[in-house]
Amino acid sequence: MRQPKVRELMEAIRALFGKRFTTKFPFEPSIPPEGFRGKPVYSTLDRDCVGCSACAEVCPAKAIKVIEEIAPDGKSGKRKLVQHPEICIYCGQCERACITQKGIKLTLEYDLATVDKTANASIVEKDLVICQNCFAVITTFDHLMWLSDKLGTLSFTNPTVMLAKQKELELLENIVKDSPHPRGGHLRFLCPNCRREQILKEQW
Description:
Blueprint: H1 6-17, E1 40-42, H2 54-58, E2 64-70, E3 77-83, H3 93-97, E4 104-106, E5 122-130, E6 137-140, H4 141-151, H5 159-168, H6 192-203
Antiparallel strand pairs: 1-4, 2-3, 3-5, 5-6
């Protein structure tokens, strides 16, 4: 049997009575360095996340689920984005693809051990805008308002964005739905296909 050397014994004694080389986690918090890619979290501030679902589109692990709940009459609904950290690979693509650059961020939180998979989920919910002709989902109301702010005066060239702005300003009730004007059919929330059909109908 190989006998330990004196130097090895001294190292063992120093290690036994000296300070720890490892962190004291979980008894004390361990703060990761800047740039650490931890749990992705949706912003709780108004319109930081507009519910466009770009983050879900680029997620390679499919860790972000898009749930759309439409009312029985088909005229309103909600879009819910649910980020599941137990599936997430923490690549940061969701943060990079966010159109507002504020909607979802990777935090420094990494201690996510739990017996309930839904406990760590980050959820955001937005109101949907529904086509008034075919009842297809157009996008979220916050997304249209973000586009309006981004486009400025150019937003008046798009009837759907313009109507969303007027709805926020509580001016929408002043618009007559069945306008006698030849182009009055545009004064409705329409999906691209229905708006194209409306333009062709007016031209012929």
